[in-house]
Amino acid sequence: MKKINLFSITILLSLFIVSCGDKPAPAEETAAPEVAASTGLDADLQAGKEAYEMTCASCHGEKGDANTPTAAALNPKPRNYKAPASEWKNGNTVAGVTKTLKEGIKGSTMVSYAHLGDETIGQIAQYVVYLSKN
Ligand code: HEC
Asked: Of ligand 1's atoms, which has the minimum distance to the CA of residue 107?
């Protein structure tokens, strides 16, 4: 009996010491910057979303449905990203959208965005593919 009591006291004491000690920051806090809290998107998708909304949403719409006043005035119309893959000229994949962004689509207001650089183009392409599915 005495043995058990001593044992529990030791456990309690060490719990007390641990809970009073300097705690390291919880894991969530250090991992937080990787995922945007408001949208739950990973860092690349979040960067793509921000660049897309600044550069592309006026024609293609924030949700990618091309339902904007600017789109209504254009011929040909900006791609609605929800349209089936068969309606896309370069395809609704990251590779296809990257090609579109680098070269533009001749004969339309979809110009080349090569000046944005490979990293930003890759992030925007990911976000366009994401919009096509969400
Ligand atoms: C001035 C309006 C305008 C802006 C701004 C614009 N686009 Fe477009 N986009 C168009 C039009 C118009 C088309 C359709 C071209 C066609 O069908 O010939 C198009 C087509 C596309 C397509 C479909 C290509 C395919 O395979 O059929 C993608 C993807 C696209 N745009 C992405 C973007 C992204 C990403 C941005 C921003 C970096 C952007 N666009 C900015 C007008 C615009």
From this structure: 18
As a whole number of angstroms, the distance between CA 6 and CA 13 comes to 10
pLDDT of the residue at 39: 78
Domain boundaries, given as residue ranges, for the chain: 42-134
pLDDT, mean over the chain: 86
What CA–CA distance (Å, rounded) separates 77 from 24? 54
Mutate to test the pocket of ligand 1, among 103, 105, 118, 124 (most ligand atoms within 8 A of CB): 105
Q: 42-134 adopts what CATH topology?
A: Cytochrome Bc1 Complex; Chain D, domain 2 (1.10.760)
pLDDT at 14 over 70: no
Q: Confidence band (pLDDT; 50, 70, 90) for 36?
A: confident
Which of ligand 1's atoms lies nearest the C-alpha of 90?
26
State the closest ligand 1 atom to the C-alpha of 88, by its place in the atom list counted from 1: 27
Residue 7 CA to ligand 1 center (angstroms) comes to: 71
